[in-house]
Amino acid sequence: MSFKCGIVGLPNVGKSTLFNALTNSNKAQAANFPFCTIDPNIGVVGVPDKRLDNLGKISNSKKIIHTTISFVDIAGLVEGASKGEGLGNKFLSHIREVDAVIHMIRCFDSDDIQNVNPTVDPVRDLEIIETEMMLADLESIQKRLEKNNKKNVDKDQIKILKAALELINTDKDLISLKSQFNKKQLYSSGLLSLKPKIFVCNVDEKSIQNGNDYTKTFINKFGQENTLIISADIENQINELENSEKKNYMEMIGLKETGLNMLIQKGYKILELETFFTSGPEETRAWTIQKNCAAPKAAGEIHSDFEKGFIRAETISYNDFVANDGWVNSRTNGKMRLEGKDYIVKDGDILNIRFNT
What we know:
Elements lengths: L2 E6 L6 H9 L17 E6 L3 H10 L3 E3 L2 E6 L15 H7 L4 E7 L15 H29 L4 H15 L13 H7 L7 E6 L10 H10 L4 E4 L1 H8 L3 H11 L5 H12 L2 E7 L3 E8 L4 H8 L1 H5 L1 E7 L1 H6 L3 H6 L4 E3 L10 E6 L2
Parallel strand pairs: 1-4, 1-5, 3-9, 5-6, 6-7
Antiparallel strand pairs: 2-4, 8-9, 10-11, 10-12
Helix pairs in contact: 1-8, 4-5, 5-6
């Protein structure tokens, strides 16, 4: 599976610049005027993983294949978008299609880059976006509940919609629904306000190490856990350098990790994702799964026939595979296990699936 993150925010906060940096492309037009992005741009990026490279060397693989993440650059929203202001509901609908939302927040001053608001206020800007998403949810809920009066809709979904409506009407966060309903039910509801969120404070170069007054105000309000401080402009500069120059430049400006790596790590955490591997002479490959994924379901990520005909999985942990220099020594030294249908795949497992055709 590949997961998809939508980059949202007000116009001119750096969404397209960040998108181009993350995807190492110039797909997204980045210009100094509102709504320079109209149709969403989509970029697919291989997920960096040092473990994958190590496994490929041990197995002497012909190919190394990374699992992927998709980034979607969604047009800037403005206050009133749910009522058609700016570019309107069309772009709210694009948010429905992503697994997680990256809220891009302007946390820098600039006379050169237009701001749709008279002042820089990251808390206000996020509240504008989240209000529009909530209003879009409200309209969707009301329409679906009206439809239920004419045609039966799934009872669990009706419970979720009614509970969500009550929370919105009492000005409460929909996040409390997560303690009342399971993840699958909530995902099926399609409510924008329930999408997992990452907050990206877009700063200038001098603020990338310690942030600034804007980021401090934002973190005081919304917390540190899902907030990242990134400079979209610096990320773009890094991507223009050769690999040998990137490390030196990052050390010089005090940047320990790229924005891409930070976003991937945070995305895996909030979406509760893990990685397992297959490794052999033909290829070494990474696969993304949900946490607590049973072996047959993981096998289905490789091929649907593997899940249907699953017998067992030859399994070696990453550390054992590396310590024993591959499959042969791992088997000889008793580090390979035969796991059945109830086995929960762990992050870093190397699997070889046995199945019936």
